[in-house]
């Protein structure tokens, strides 16, 4: 397992913030460990309260630059990320790079809040930067035959062909919105968004719900890292 996560509530500038994240590392855990320590602090600068979208986007960019500049210490690995910020229980901001995913429940229906950044869907961007996407029989599409996502933090050897800018989405939380699931791709490879939601909405305790999703993914023989956070809204 090369995953790290964040799940906590903090008080900041008179607001209650729920901070949630899954960082799914590859080629070691140095980059996700760095993200766990630094990404949210980079996001929650003064600009966040005036323009959350720009603040999140710039923080992802600055954090990636910092990771690349520390590559002698952090190594050549990388990480995907999905982050969620809940403001006063009323406003939710979700962002991601890579294939870790955020799924929201509204009236019992699963709404995907993130974009899976897969090499085939962003082939044009990769090829325009001089890279290529391989599609070997029996394997997933990979950037330069190596990485199965088209956006990530780190990965210095592939950075000229990768993006690290996040997709960002916000939503107002109302009485019809009751659950948020964040999970690495080890979960989503073996179940749909709605299947995951149907499992957790029957379990009141969010910790137990997250654990049940992980156990179900293992039962379904997922072969990838599995990390999961369930938030009751």
UniProtKB/TrEMBL annotation:
CDD domains cross-referenced by the UniProt entry: PP2Cc
Enzyme Commission numbers on file: 3.1.3.16
Domain of life: Eukaryota
Keywords: Hydrolase, Magnesium, Manganese, Metal-binding, Protein phosphatase
UniProt keyword annotation of Hydrolase present: yes
Domain PPM-type phosphatase residues, every copy: 1-233
Molecular function GO terms recorded: metal ion binding; protein serine/threonine phosphatase activity
InterPro entries associated with the record: PP2C, PPM-type-like_dom_sf, PPM-type_phosphatase-like_dom
Reactions catalysed according to its record: O-phospho-L-seryl-[protein] + H2O = L-seryl-[protein] + phosphate; O-phospho-L-threonyl-[protein] + H2O = L-threonyl-[protein] + phosphate
Top-tier EC class: hydrolase
Co-factor(s): Mg(2+); Mn(2+)
Pfam families, per database record: PP2C (PF00481)
Gene3D superfamilies documented for this protein: PPM-type phosphatase domain
Family recorded in the similarity comment: Belongs to the PP2C family.
Protein name stated in the entry: protein-serine/threonine phosphatase
